[in-house]
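INFO batch 0412 | record 1 of 1 | parsing
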Amino acid sequence: MDQHQFLAERFEANRAHLRSVAYRMLGSMSDADDAVQETWLRLSRADTSGVENLTGWLTTVVARVSLDMLRSRTSRHEEQFGDSQLDSPALQEENTDPEHEAVMADSIGLALLVVLDTLGPAERLAFVLHDMFAVPFEEIGSILGRSPAAAKQLASRARRRVQGAASEEDIEIDVTRQRAVVDAFLAASRGGDFDALVALLDPHVILRADSTVVSRPRANLQAEVRGALAVAGAFGGRAVGAQTAMVDGFVGAVWAATAGGRPLAAFEFRVRHGKIVAIDIIGDRKRLGEMDLQVLSQ
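INFO prediction complete | emitting tokens
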């Protein structure tokens, strides 16, 4: 295998992750795809022989590209990024698919996207990279040309603005607090602790499962279940085999990974005031393949 083919395969393996980073930075699927395309161009021209962590290198590049695009919007009031001639490997045909963009926006939360748009480019980058993707402040500072302390201050200021502006939605965005709730929920589900499950659920919680999950033998699950008692009943004992994971930038879970390393299902959780307000179970293979899934260590 030559070097170009090797890099192309590594890039494709990281595409979903890079798209997730760019989309949270830019709030537009077409712009995110432009940023990912530019990242491929830079990778194809770079000497990466000394790069030990290619995923980290690509994350830094797509963040720099997205930052430049945000600054360009601010200075020129434009949302168009320059086009280029070299296609990235296996460029996705759904490049600007409105349905896919709607799915991605729903997975993040439209309210959060609106709030992110109120941040300056540097604040948005610091917040997205650190709070959503756990990138160290040393790396964020190097992207911004600032010290780690200054990057941390930017992220803190952005976090306060997000938490203040998101009062209507109030979706929990702190990864540590998200994980505490999700871990407790999965533990209660595995143990069949009905009372603990109810205590972790908002009274008006909504559980949604896609058609792939509903149609599976012995799934015994409706497409939509509403209310804490009903959702707790649906989850009793169901999380056996589930692992806590980052799911498109939020703490969620994956279930029953296949031999190829991909899960049979992913669980998206939305947490407000320490309570789970929504759970989405995704089993569709195409959607799972487009998601950024990273199992968290126990």
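INFO post-check: The beta strands are 201-209, 224-226, 242-247, 250-257, 263-272, 275-282, 293-295.
INFO record closed
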